[in-house]
User: Which sequence fits this backbone?
């Protein structure tokens, strides 16, 4: 975590996520108020806007948490995905498919992980057109450290109880299924 200078000239840890600059109003409620004056579907607009705002807040907190390990949450996801595979390796196309990102987004992620010696890229032994990404022992070690940090931070969702997390997951299952996620 970066340090900031306090009034005495010493340093202190940067503000935690819950101490960030707070707006004097709820931007979602203000947006909903304005929206409802012009258009319909205000409850869904509020839900989607809330979902996207929480996504940004959580992602920012997790990225800050992972920065000392040289990771972003996206790179961490690649390491976890590779660690879950039977051989610790997957084709780049499969990584993109599983993480729901375009193939052109996978390449820079993999390149950065490879530069850090956390993964290795090799030609696919059965498909000459494909490239495999394999997690290295160092990649597994860094992934374990990152996982400990994320779990300790309760995935940046410490404001929710376990029961609320289960409820949220349940609520989000229908739109995921309707969109063809599974």
Assistant:
């Amino acid at each position: 975590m970066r340090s900031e200078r306090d009034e005495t000239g010493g340093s202190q840890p940067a503000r935690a996520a819950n101490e960030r600059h707070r707006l004097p109003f709820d931007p979602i409620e203000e947006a909903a108020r304005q929206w409802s004056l012009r258009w319909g579907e205000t409850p869904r607009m509020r839900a989607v806007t809330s979902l996207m705002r929480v996504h940004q807040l959580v992602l920012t907190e997790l990225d800050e948490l992972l920065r000392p390990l040289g990771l972003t949450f996206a790179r961490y996801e690649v390491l976890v995905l590779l660690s879950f595979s039977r051989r610790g390796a997957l084709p780049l196309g499969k990584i993109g498919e599983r993480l729901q990102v375009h193939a052109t987004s996978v390449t820079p992620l993999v390149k950065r992980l490879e530069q850090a010696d956390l993964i290795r890229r090799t030609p696919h032994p059965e498909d000459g057109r494909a490239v495999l990404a394999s997690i290295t022992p160092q990649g597994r070690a860094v992934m374990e450290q990152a996982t400990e940090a994320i779990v300790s931070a309760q995935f940046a969702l410490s404001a929710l109880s376990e029961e609320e997390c289960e409820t949220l997951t349940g609520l989000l299952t229908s739109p995921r299924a309707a969109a063809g996620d599974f």
Summary: The longest helix spans residues 42-66. The chain is about 55% helix and 10% strand. Residues 1-15 have pLDDT under 50 and may be disordered.
